[in-house]
Design goal:
Blueprint lengths: L3 H4 L2 H9 L2 H16 L5 E5 L5 H9 L4 E6 L2 H14 L2 H5 L1 E5 L10 E6 L10 H13 L1 E13 L7 E6 L4 E10 L4 E9 L5 E11 L3 H10 L4 E10 L4 E8 L9 E8 L1
Parallel strand pairs: 1-2, 1-4, 2-3, 4-5
Antiparallel strand pairs: 5-12, 6-7, 7-8, 8-9, 10-11, 10-12
Helix pairs in contact: 3-4
Bound molecules: S-adenosylmethionine.
Length: 265
């Protein structure tokens, strides 16, 4: 008999573990409306993987359009199959799954570019990071927003494993190695199942752990006029993070934090 790990779909497990696309899309819309005083219509989702944010985006309104970009043909194929089942014919026309390098791919100009789950940390030098930021700048409309996320805190500098239990599996975030000289960070995602089977190293990330100030400086040097930080809220009663993010210029030196970075053209 097949083990649970053999039957599982690692992309589905990833989505369940780390993505909340309804939140993501409503946050983008809210940020854009506040900044541009109009509704956002077009999105470019860089490093899109299974394109779940883009699928949610085109479902949200009949004029919404998305360009979802990834370098991995296998995952784009998966995205195509899954979105085909989820979207109607008209919605599918407004979703563009693109095989390309987010570093240099020229899409039509959009209202929002997003780079989620720290994917842009594959660019490990300031030159590369700025090349990417300059490309997104060119792909944004005049009142466009670039939305990125970041994590940090002293735990981000540690080699550790963090387990989160889900109904049918356990998600394991493995900060496998960290070099304090270069800030090179190698991470894995593993999945564990009740029958003791495991998908080991389902995903691997080779990143540089960038600080918020370094990211801001690179954004400014790439042309972005203003850069704001939104830090995740904390529910003291429940002793856990909330789903709200607050614009701030100062925050506590928590062991771990999550932030959105909102850059205006
Ligand atoms: C951490 S996953 C991001 C998944 C998704 N954005 C999310 O929010 O969870 C990183 C993805 O970035 C893709 N990727 C890595 N380098 C890329 C590049 N230069 N251009 C486009 N995609 C890239 C990988 O193929 C992978 O699917």
């Amino acid at each position: 008999m097949k083990k649970l790990a053999q039957k599982a779909d690692k992309y589905e497990l990833y989505e369940e573990s780390v993505q909340n696309v309804e939140f993501e899309v409503s946050f983008y819309k809210k940020m854009f409306k506040k900044s541009a005083n109009r509704d956002a219509v077009s999105l470019r989702e860089d490093f899109c993987a299974s394109g779940k944010i883009s699928v949610e985006w085109v479902k949200c309104s009949s004029s919404a359009i998305s360009y979802a970009i990834d370098l991995d043909k296998k995952i784009l194929n998966y995205a195509k199959n899954v979105s085909s089942a989820d979207l109607n014919t008209e919605q599918k026309k407004r979703l563009h799954l693109i095989y390309g390098d987010s570093l240099s791919y020229k899409s039509p100009r959009v209202d929002i570019v997003s780079a989620c789950n720290f994917s842009y940390w594959v660019f490990k030098t300031r030159d590369k990071l700025k090349k990417y930021f300059k490309n997104t700048y060119k792909c944004l409309k005049k009142d466009g927003l670039f939305i990125l996320d970041a994590f940090g805190g002293y735990e981000a500098h540690q080699e550790l494993e963090e387990r989160t239990k889900h109904k049918n599996f356990t998600y394991v975030w493995d900060q496998h190695s960290f070099n304090p000289i270069t800030n090179d960070l190698t991470c894995f995602i593993h999945f564990e199942f009740k029958d003791k089977s495991r998908i080991n190293r389902a995903f691997k990330y080779e990143w540089r752990l960038w600080s918020l100030m370094e990211i801001k400086e690179c954004l400014n040097e790439s042309g972005f006029k203003s850069v704001d930080f939104y830090m995740q809220g904390w529910d003291a009663k429940k002793d856990e993070e909330t789903e709200r993010f607050y614009k701030t210029r100062k925050c506590d030196a928590d062991p771990g934090w999550l932030a959105y970075i909102i850059a205006k053209k």
